[in-house]
Amino acid sequence: MFEIKNVSRVFGQEYALKNISLEIKGGLNFIIGASGSGKTTLLKILSGLDQDFTGEAYYRQQSLKALSTEEKSEYYNKKIGIVWQEFNLIDDLSVFDNIKMPLYLNDAMSDELVMYTMKQLKINELANQKVRNLSGGQKQRVAIARELVKNPEVIIADEPTAALDPKSASIIVNILKQIAKTRTVIIVTHDRSMLDDKSSIYEMDKGEIISTTLKEQGKTITSKKTTNPALSLKRALSVSITNVKSKIGRYAVLALAILVSTSFLLMNTSGSIQNSSQNGFEELYESIGEGLLDVEIAASFISAGGMSGSEDEQKPAVDVNQDIAGLYDKYLKDERVEHVVFAQAVGNIKVVIDGKEHTIETSNNVPVFKKLLAGKMPMGDGNEVVVSSSLGDIVGLSNKELIGKTIDLSGTLFNWDSGQPVEMPVGTTTTIVGVADTTMVVENNGEFKEYPVDDSFFFSKSSVMEMRGQANMASKTSNFSMRAKSPEDMISLKDELLANGIVPNGRFELVEDMVRLNDQAKEQSGSAVIVISVLALVVSLAVSFMTAAMRKKEYAIYKINGYTNSHLTKITLLEYLLVGIAAIVLFLVTSPLINMAMKSFTGSGIVDVTTFAIAGGLIILLSGLCGVVASMVIPTVNMFKSLKSGDR
To answer: DSSP states of 291-349 as a string?
Structure first.
C-alpha cells in the first residue's frame, strides 16, 4: 500500500528524515518516537502534504511526490482520512456540517450516512452543536467521523490522544483499533501505552527507523472506482449558505462595508455632490424665473458700460446703435437657444375676442416673459402671438381655452425715425398659440419683488413686420429676445455676439459668477467624491482580503478533504453573491436613512426610483470584486503550515 524508498527531508541544515525506507501494507500500524524524531514529517509525506523531499514515496504505485491537483483532490477525498492532534475542525460549523463537508464532492453524498456515522461514534445527540462548544474527546470523535464518511482506504492519525484526558484517550484508541479491522490505520504517537502485540510498530529516532515490528495484516478495503471529486453549482451554493449562516456576524460586516462603499460610489455615479453645487443657481433661478437666461438684442439703447462683467461703474451713459439684421433668423434654430421672441412693445392695446372688445392696461414697460404656461412660442411663419395669462382673467377663459383663439388687436407703436417719438396706430389679426407668465421680478437690496405686466404680448415675425409697416418704420428689424437653454449656453451666446460687434443685454455678470462658482464647486466636490469613493472601495476590498486571510486554516481544512482552489473559489464567489443580495435588501430597507444622511452631507439626496437599479448593479459589481480579491488568498494557502501538527 505505502512504499517509502530512501526518503530524506532536510530543514535548513538539519535532517528531519535521513534515508529511510519502509512498507506499510494494512491493519493497525504505529509510528512511534520522541518529539523531534521525524515521525510527524513522515506522516506529512504519507499524507501528501510535504512533497519537498528526496527519494521516493508511493501509495498503490502512485507517486506521492508527483500528485497533480486533481489527484490530490481524489487522494484526500476518497483514499485517505487524516485525524489531527489539533482536530482541525471548523469551529463555527455544527457537528453535522463538519462531518458532511467532504461529501459535497462525493456522488454518494447523503445525510443518512452522516447520521449513521455519528450514531456509531455516539455523537448523534451533538449534531446541531457548534464544534467550538465541544470537549476535546468529542471534537476528536467528530474528526474521526468526518474521515469515516469518506469511506477511505487509510486513516492516518497524528497524536490523536495528545490533547485528551485519559478516559477520552482510551475511547479514541479503541475506536481506531475497531476501524483497523476493516481498513489500514496509521497512528503517529509518542505514547507507548497505546501499543499492543497485534500491531506493526515502526520506531524512529533522529530521523531514522531504528526498529520495525511487523504483524500479520488484517483485511483492508479497496475503494471502488469512482468519479473525480466535483462540486456542482447547487452543492457549492449549499456550502456557501452554510458558511454564511455560521458566520453571520462576519458577513454582516462585509455587507455593511459594501453598502457604505456603494452609497459613496452612488454619489459619484449619480453626481449628487456635483448637483448639490447647483443649489445656489437653482435658488436664484427660482427667485427670478426662467428670464434669468434671457439674452436681449436691441438695435439701439443707452448703456452705462459693457457686458463682460468688469465694466467701470463711473463711465458715462452712451448711446449704442448696432445692426441686428438677420440675427433673429440666425438664432431661431440655434441648439443653444430655447426660443426666440420679438420684444416689440405695443401700447394702448385693445383686443376683440369672440366678438367682444377688451382693453388691456398700459404699463409703459417693455414686454416681460417669465415662463410659458401653455401652448408654444410664436416662432412659426403665420401671424401668431403669446399673450399674458391675465388676458384669461379679463375675458373669462382658462389658459387652455385661450389657445387657438383668433383675436383682432389694435394699439400704438412709437416711430423714432425722425429722432422724436411719434405714436402711430397699428393693428393685426393673429392666433393665440401660447399663454405666458408675464410677471416682472425686480431685485432690491437682495430682496426680489414681483410686478405684473399685463400688456406683454409676444408676436411672430410676420405680425411684427405687419405692424411696423403700418407705423411707417423705415427699419424692418425689430428688437428680440432669446432664452438660452443653460447658463453655459447664455455665456457662450454673449461671447459670440460681442465677438461679432453686437452688445447684448442680460444678467450676464450674475450668471457668470454663478457658473464660475459652480465650476469651482464641481471641481472641488468631484475630487472629494473620487477620494471618498476610492477610500470606500479600498476599505471594502481590504476587509474582504483580511477576512479571507483569517480563513486560511479553514481553506486548508477544506483542501485536506479534497477541495481544490477552483472549488473554494466557486464557494467564495457565491458567498459574496449572497452578501451582495443581503446588501441590496439592506439598501432598500435603509434607503430613507441613507437619503437623509446624504442630504445633510451634500444638500441633495441620492436615492430615488431611477437610482435603485444603479445601486443594485453597483452592489453586485462591488460584491463580485470583493469576492475576487478574497479568492486571491486561496491559492496562497500552504496546507503544510496551516495544518501544522507536532514539531517533526
So the answer is: GGGEEEE-SEEEESS-SSS---TTSPPEEEE---TTHHHHHTT-TTEEEEEE----EEE
C-alpha cell at 219: 483485511
Give the Cα separation of 153 and 47 in Å (integer).
12
Q: Summarize pLDDT for 98-109 with one digit per residue, the tens.
A: 999 999 998 777
- The residue among 466, 360, 453 whose CA lies nearest residue 413 is 466
The full set of domains in the chain, from first to last, is 2-228 (3.40.50.300), 234-278+519-642 (no CATH), 291-507 (no CATH)
The DSSP secondary-structure symbol of 429 reads: E
| pLDDT tens per residue across span 435-451 | 999 988 777 776 778 88
Region 580-602: mean pLDDT is: 79
Task: Provide the grid cell at 537.
Answer: 472601495
Q: State how far the Cα of 450 lies from the Cα of 291, in Å rounded to an integer.
A: 13
pLDDT > 60? residue 470: yes
CA-CA distance, 480 to 327, in Å (whole number)? 9
145 near 117, Cβ under 8 Å? yes
Amino acid 598: pLDDT:
64
C-alpha cell at 626: 470583493
Beta pairing, strands 2-11 & 406-415: unpaired
What is the C-alpha to C-alpha distance for residues 568 and 549, in angstroms, rounded to an integer? Answer: 14
Q: With CA atoms as reference, report the closest residue to 162 among 557, 647, 554, 553.
A: 647
d(CA 589, CA 579): 15
Q: Which of 594, 606, 441, 510 is nearest to 280 (CA)?
A: 510
Give 574 or 317, the one with higher predicted confidence: 574
If one counts every other C-beta atom within 10 angstroms of the C-beta of residue 78, the result is 23
- Tell me the C-alpha distance between 134 and 421, whole Å: 106
- HSE-up of 31 (CA within 13 Å, CB side)? 30
d(CA 266, CA 604): 13
Enter the C-alpha cell of residue 134.
465541544
Residue 346 near residue 413, CB atoms below 8 Å = yes
Rounded-to-integer distance, Cα 514 and Cα 518, Å: 6
Amino acid identity of residue 28, one-letter, is L
Q: What is the pLDDT of residues 234-290, one digit of tens each?
A: 999 999 999 999 999 888 988 988 888 887 777 665 555 455 545 555 666 666 667
Q: All 3 cell numbers of residue 366?
A: 417693455
Interacting residues of 241 by C-beta distance below 8 A, sequence separation 6+:
578
Cell (9 digits) for 266: 452612488
Closest C-alpha among 461, 506, 463, 500 to residue 483: 506
Helix (H) or strand (E) holding 530: helix 508-550
Cα distance between residue 289 and residue 466, in whole Å: 31
pLDDT computed for residue 611 by the predictor: 74
Q: Please check whether residue 235 is in contact with residue 564, taking contact to mean a CB–CB distance below 8 angstroms.
A: no
Cα–Cα distance for residue pair 153/133, rounded to 1 Å: 31
Residue 144 has, within 13 A of its CA and on its CB side, a CA count of: 30
Decide: helix, strand or coil at residue 276: helix
- The CA angle 459-292-449, to the nearest 5 degrees, is 95
